[in-house]
Here is the input.
Amino acid sequence: MNRSIDFGGSTARDLNPVITRLVVGGFFATFVVATLWALAWEHQEIAQSTADTRVAAIVGPTCPASREAFDRAIKVQGPLPYVFEYNGVTFGRYFGIADCSVAASKAGLGLGAFDVCQFTGPSTLYVKTPRGEYYFSPGVGHKASVMTEGGVARCVMAAPAEVD
Here is the structure.
């Protein structure tokens, strides 16, 4: 007598969808955890940079801003010899040292950041952000700080950071 026993089908076919769901779920969970970890790390780094930069201490009169003064300086002194890019923003100056960092934005949910660059004596400053070009003339030997919150450059005649 030949008997065949039926155990309800192949378990391999039944497990494939379960394993697939577990693998996809694992990848998704790993992605979420990694993203949250990166955001937390970035928030901590920005908070530390804000504290180190002492943004609250950067107070002073507004830098003179004039495209005409910038154009005159270019005619007399030639092109800016020191031009650099920091976080997608272009900065240019004639003299001195620049020290840049980021600070936490107070706008929105407070999750963003903006650039803060401090200069020891730039004479003339050029700043290009995604929102436009800005021209400042703090003068030779005058410290200046440029902040780009919201993509708009703002310059004050102060730079409390010790630039080496």
